[in-house]
Every structure is written in C-alpha cells, then in structure tokens.
C-alpha cells in the first residue's frame, strides 16, 4: 500500500476493523513520513458450493443462513447487530470446515444450530425444528432435553 503523501511503499497497519458486510477499514501509517491515512478493503464474496442431502449442489448463499436465523428469531429479544455477528461467526466456521470449495448443507445446519444455541434457546429450537424436520416426537424431546442442559 503506497503512502498518498510521499508515495513510499513502506506503510504499516495500525488498526483494522470490519465496517459493514465484507469490508474492512484500516488505519495505516507511513514508515517514512509518519503521516496517517485510512483505506477500505472489500472482500469479494467467497466461492463455495453447498452439497445438499440429495447430492445436488447450489452456490453458497449467506443470505439464506441469515433468513433462517431472522425467521427463527421473530419476536425474540435479539438485535440486528447480534444476528449480524452470529452470521459472521457462522461464516468463519463454515470456512474452517469447508473442504476448499464445498461444504455439506448438513454441516452448515449443524454450525448454525451450535451458534444459535448460545444466542437464544427459543430461536434455536425453532431453527432446529425446521432444519431437522422432526418427524419423531422422541427426537424433539431429545432436543428439548439438550436445550435444558
Ligand atoms: Zn509517507
């Protein structure tokens, strides 16, 4: 990164923080003239496909995850900010578990459930009931038992 004042190539990052979806704000300082400036870097959306239970694949879509969480959080005391944070955390985990370019939809569901469980129990059970498509009462009871742990 070139210094806008003296064109030096020697600059250091002194602070960086995410500002909005996929963007990072960085405070930088020039090592030569010591002046400070700010840059905004945008991360291109990630290339990832999701393999569904029936074996078909579809492009990874963060909004689907968000929608599932928003839907599960209706009328719960959950702020937009905590949903944003949760989605960011989930995405980080997905990147860890993704086999380079592919991840199973089931794994995504598990990651979302794990994160939701810590945020809100009701949202968690709602998401679980939709995601896992409970057909057996015993499964549902098991989930409720897990929640109360
Ligand atoms: Zn400079």
What descriptive keywords fit this protein?
alpha+beta; 149 residues; single chain; binds zinc ion; 3-stranded antiparallel sheet; 2 domains; 5 helices
Describe the protein in words:
The chain is of the alpha+beta class. The chain has 2 domains: 32 residues; 99 residues. It has 5 helices and 6 strands, in the order E-E-E-E-E-H-H-E-H-H-H. The strands form 2 sheets. Strands 1-2-3 form a 3-stranded antiparallel sheet, with no helix packed on it. Strands 5-4-6 form a 3-stranded mixed sheet. The longest helix is centred in the middle third of the chain and has 18 residues. The structure holds zinc ion. The site of zinc ion has 8 residues, from loops.
What's a quick, concise take on this entry?
The protein is of the alpha+beta class. The protein contains five helices and six strands, in the order E-E-E-E-E-H-H-E-H-H-H.
Helix content: 40-55%
What is the 3D shape?
elongated
CA-to-CA gap between the ends?
51 Å
Question: Going across the major beta sheet, what is the strand order?
Answer: 1-2-3
Q: Order of SSEs, N→C?
A: EEEEEHHEHHH
Please count the beta strands (DSSP E, at least 2 residues each).
6
Biggest sheet overview: 3 strands, antiparallel
Write the layout of secondary structure elements.
Blueprint: E1 11-20, E2 23-30, E3 36-42, E4 49-51, E5 57-59, H1 62-72, H2 80-97, E6 102-104, H3 105-119, H4 121-131, H5 137-147
Parallel strand pairs: 4-6
Antiparallel strand pairs: 1-2, 2-3, 4-5
Helix pairs in contact: 1-2, 1-4, 2-3, 3-4, 4-5
The chain binds zinc ion (ZN).
The site of zinc ion has 8 residues, from loops.
């Amino acid at each position: 990164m070139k210094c806008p004042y003296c064109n030096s190539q020697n600059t250091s990052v002194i602070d960086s923080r995410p500002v909005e979806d996929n963007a990072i704000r960085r405070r930088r300082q020039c090592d030569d003239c010591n002046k400070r400036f700010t840059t905004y870097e945008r991360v291109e959306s990630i290339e990832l496909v999701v393999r569904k239970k029936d074996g078909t694949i579809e492009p990874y879509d963060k909004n689907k995850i968000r929608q599932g969480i928003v839907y599960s959080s209706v009328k719960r005391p959950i702020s937009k900010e905590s949903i944003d944070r949760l989605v960011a955390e989930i995405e980080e985990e997905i990147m860890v578990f993704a086999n380079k370019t592919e991840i199973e939809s089931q794994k995504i569901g598990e990651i979302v459930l794990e994160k939701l469980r810590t945020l809100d129990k009701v949202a968690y059970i709602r998401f679980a009931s939709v995601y896992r498509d409970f057909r057996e009462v015993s499964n549902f009871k098991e989930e409720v038992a897990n929640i109360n742990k």
